[in-house]
Amino acid sequence: MKKILPISLALVSLFFFGCETNSHKEKSQIQNSNLKEEKDMSNLNLMLNEILKTRIKNISSQRADVSDIVSQYLYSGLSKNEIINLISKEFEILENVDDKLLIHYQKGEGYLGNRRDLYISLFFDKNGQLLKNISYLDKSNNL
Fold it and tell me: For 110-130, b where at least 16 C-beta lie within 10 A, e where not — what string?
């Protein structure tokens, strides 16, 4: 009986330690997932801030090309699903076909020329990886 008790205690403690390690791994994975999502949203906000600060120099079209800014944040090689998950809360998806995704972001109401519309056309290869974007910021004067 004296020999069985230490062995039993050792087995119980190993089992408990194994369960605690498993639980810690699951919590770490959830925290890492949350941190990645927060980082992605932060990057998206940085992109939007940078784009909305862009000065529109073309008076006749009231439009500025912001493709270079977008490509810093939505870079080649990202999958279509990753991008959709990233932009789903902030952007409206206007078109979603196999090799193209057209998304829209609106800021302001248009009174006194404060409305800005961001249109981003994303083009994908046959595997759903981002190849390039064509993006522009449009100023609307709805007076």
Answer: eeeeebbbbbbbbebeeeeeb
Among all chains, which residue has been given the structure tokens 């870079």?
75
Q: Are 114 and 141 in contact (CB under 8 A)?
A: no
Nearest to 80 by CA among 134, 132, 124: 124
* CA–CA gap between residue 110 and residue 114 (Å, rounded): 5
pTM for the predicted model, two decimal places: 0.70
Six-digit token string for 81 = 């699903």
What pLDDT digit, counting tens, does each position of 84-107 carry? 998 988 899 999 998 999 999 998
* Letter string b/e over residues 31-54, b meaning 16 or more CB atoms within 10 A of that residue's CB: eeeeeeeeeeeeebeebbeebeee
